[in-house]
Description:
Elements lengths: L1 E4 L16 H13 L8 E4 L26 E5 L12 E3 L2 E2 L6 E3 L2 E4 L3 E3 L6 E3 L6 E5 H13 L29 H10 L29 H14 L13
Parallel strand pairs: 1-2, 1-3, 3-7, 8-10
Antiparallel strand pairs: 4-7, 5-6, 9-10
Helix pairs in contact: 1-2
Bound molecules: zinc ion (ZN).
The site of zinc ion has 7 residues, from helix 2.
Amino acid sequence: MTVKSFLGAPTRPPLLNGTRTWDENVLSAASDWNAQGAAVQITVQVGGPFADPCGRQGRGHACDNTGPAGDNPIIFANDFCGRDFGDIIQLTNNCYQPDTGAMVNAPVFINAKVRWNAYDGRIRFDTSTGVPEPVYDIRRVILHELGHVLGLAHPDEADPPQAVVAIMNSRVSNIDRLQQDDVEGLLAIYPRSAPGPQPTPSQGCSVAPKETTGWFWGTAFAFLVVIRGIGRSAGWGHLRNRVRF
Ligand SMILES: [Zn+2]
């Protein structure tokens, strides 16, 4: 799959990890997933034609607030298509085919109103104003969001919740690299030997623009998929990430 990074560069490079652009950190995070030998590779395209993901499902929008099928942009945004981020720092809006769980697309929105840098290790805080403010590491957050683009969900929000060490847990933490559970999740969806089963969504959104073939799933049906999916899955597959991370 291809993701398109439209993050560009900070005003004053370099970033703390020595990179000069945000895009370099998208490339680096993608290479972490790609190194696991799964039957999926993330190709990062920097820049290029931009299709605004915001809009109602229909022409040019595979789901509400996702762009054309297969289009996975990563963008800074002041809100999520007009909705306030609240305490969310990044949001991936996944669009699936409810019948098969196949990924359609997943734009990643990065909250431009919080502070970003790129570094390894413990989460940093800026104390220069007297009130400590978190400065988020964009690399680990992109690593997490690419997991959503691949179809992984939060293990700590699965039903039942899984108490595991993972970059895919719902809160940003001092973990800055993939953990065993993350890799196991990736390989559960995309086994090493062959293109495997598609991710099973734990929630649903209606994916099918009527002008395309075969997908005629309404919102009500998608809701049924939500209930059924929660009952049967361990949480892999994730439709709309609306948590802090
Ligand atoms: Zn998440």
